[in-house]
Amino acid sequence: MLAADHLALALGGTPVLADVSVALPPGRVTAIIGPNGAGKSSLLACLAGLSAPEAGQVMLDGRPLAALPPADRARRIGFLPQVAEVNWEIDVATLVALGRLPHRRGWAGPSPADAAAIAAAIAATDLAGLAGRVVNSLSGGERARALLARVLAGQPHWLLADEPLANLDPAHQWDTLACLRAAAAAGAGVAIVLHDLAHAARIADHLVLMAAGRVVAAGPPETVLTPERIADVYGVTTARVALPDGSAGLVITGRLG
Amino acid sequence: MKRWLIPALLLALLLAAGLSLLAGKVWIPPAAFVVGDERWPIIAQLRLPRTLLALLVGGGLGLAGAAMQAYLRNPLADPGLFGVSAGAALGAVLAILLGFSATPGVLSGWALAGAAGAMALLALIAGQSASIIVFTLAGVVVSSLAGALTALVISLAPTPFATGQIITWLMGALTDRSWNDVAVAAPLIALGAGLIAAAARGLDALTLGEAAARSLGIDPLRLQWLVVLGVGCIVGAVVAAAGVIGFVGLMVPHMVRPLTSRRPSAVLLPSALAGALLLCVADAAVRAAPTVTELRLGIAMSLIGAPFFLALLLRLRRRLA
Asked: B244-290 pLDDT, tens per residue?
């Protein structure tokens, strides 16, 4: 279990998280949602061990995350940043191999386990035909897949993705979410910061709704995303629609105020 | 990486080192390479240390340049950027002003003290900040301060002879170097290379930016000091041994990068080997060139480097357009 326990965090004097407690169960997809400035990315950075909370702590399997050596932490928690830099003209295979860095020892080359994990990540993201292409020459959707493959190659027990759907067309959004769901099905605890409420409602097992640095509600999507709460937090009106497969979809119908 | 790259560079290095032992105002035929030959002292006391020093200086500059470009994630970064080389030059220039230049080893000591002073100042300004921008700006501050003080020292030089001596030294050369210089430079450059090798994994991770690098288990502060101390040891030793030789650290990583996977750590060793090769050949060339006085190596490298830089810029401009 990866859990935040009464976290508080301020950036430059402005409080961004206050008394935030969440738990990410393994094998499940947790979507962290909320309006801009709600503290979603700050929470994810704390869970990834990249920001040190001022109060409270992040616990990994019952131990404080801060006490874990960075290399151990990196082997267990994979993090996909919102702004994804790729600085040199490396090809996709080289990029994906960077995800194995926490597993490499000294100057030894890639082990068979490394090679297998890289191949599996490339297969899972359907990149086999692009392995030799320079990352910065890919389309936005292909590039997002390659960056996701980099995280998957590390075979993390916990996978934290900060707005992985930004700037992707609907098909690529779907593919990315399918990859993340597959990682959860394989046993990883997945947390995704999302803006799209419809996606969140459909793909997440568990939702964490945040506003102004606090957790407003947490639980299964249907209990968290009530029309009143959405109106309260986002200032928009919504309607539930029946989908052909019998499930319910969420549609935004207007703006309050 | 192209499989032939490292063996090809090693072979070329071997040939270049051999050529460097033969070349000079006096060409020495291979037949003279026996102890007891009258030309043997030239080889053992002049050519051999000079060739080794060219390999060390070139290899060090190539490696330091590749490390700087990887750390700053900027293909135009140069080992001089942290101000260490300007600090070393200031130390050496002070030694000349104070009249210590004739005593062997003293000038190197002052240059190394200057390099260490620059690094200490850098630590004082940038402190515990692991921010690359703060660090780079601190380097610019140190560099311009040392540059200004060097200009001050030159203006204070008591005689035109001292001024000339300082300016000549600043141009960088490997003329009349001895085994003493090799003995000072080799361990420092080896130490710097070791520190950079320890930073290799962190440099790879930085390809993905600072946040992703930290999520891969990299400690940014440790990485920063590995790079700064590694580059500082190398650049300090290089300036102490050879004066200021520009462009090698900037050029060489660009020459070898397309032959590698472009992963930063994959560029390090080829850059070191290619830098050693470049400087060894260039030093042999300035020695053998039919000029009245020997062309200064630093000037030769700048003459090669500036057009190279221009070509790089034009290619970059085409790609950005």
From this structure: 898 899 899 999 999 999 999 999 999 999 999 999 999 999 988 88
Q: Token digits for A144?
A: 């997002």
User: Which residues of chain B approach chain A closer than 8 Å at the C-beta?
Assistant: 73, 197, 200-201, 204-209, 211-212, 214-219, 257, 261-264
Q: Does residue A88 sit at the B interface (CB-CB below 8 Å)?
A: yes
Residues of A in contact with B215 (CB under 8 A): 48-50, 74, 77-79, 81
Strands of A2-11's sheet in order across: A14-24, A2-11, A55-60, A63-64
Strands A29-33 and A236-242: what pairing? Answer: unpaired
CATH at B143: 1.10.3470.10
Domain count, chain B: 1
Compute the count of residue pairs across chains A and B with CB atoms less than 8 Å apart.
80
In whole angstroms, how far apart are CA B166 and each of A16, B160, B247, B302? Answer: 57, 10, 21, 18
Asked if residue B41 is part of any domain, the answer here is no
At the topology level, CATH places domain A2-225 in Rossmann fold (3.40.50)
Provide the domain limits for residue B157: 48-320
Low-confidence residues in chain A, pLDDT < 70: none
ipTM tops the 0.85 cut: yes
Indicate the helix (H) or strand (E) that contains A3. Answer: strand A2-11
Instruction: Note whether A84 contacts B215, CB cutoff 8 Å.
Output: no
Stretch (H or E) spanning A193: strand A189-193
Contact B134, B124 (CB under 8 A): no
Partners of residue A78 in chain B, C-beta under 8 Å:
215
Give the residue on A whose Cα is nearest the Cα of B198.
Answer: A106
* Cβ-defined contact of B212 to A85 (cutoff 8 Å): yes
- Residue B28: inside a domain, yes or no? no
User: Mind listing the pLDDT tens digit for each residue in A151-170?
Assistant: 999 999 999 999 999 888 99
Here the tokens at position A85 are 């830099």
The yes-or-no verdict on residue B99 having pLDDT over 70 is: yes
Whether pTM exceeds 0.95: no
Buried (b) or exposed (e) across B48-87, using 16+ Cβ within 10 A? bbbbbbbbbbbbbbbbbbbbbbbbbbebebbbbbbbbbbb
Q: Which residue of B has its CA nearest to A93?
A: B261
Domain limits, chain A: 2-225, 227-257
Cβ pair B262:A150 closer than 8 A:
no
Beta-strand pair A55-60/A2-11: antiparallel
| B70 in any annotated domain | yes
Give a yes or no: residue B122 inside a domain.
yes
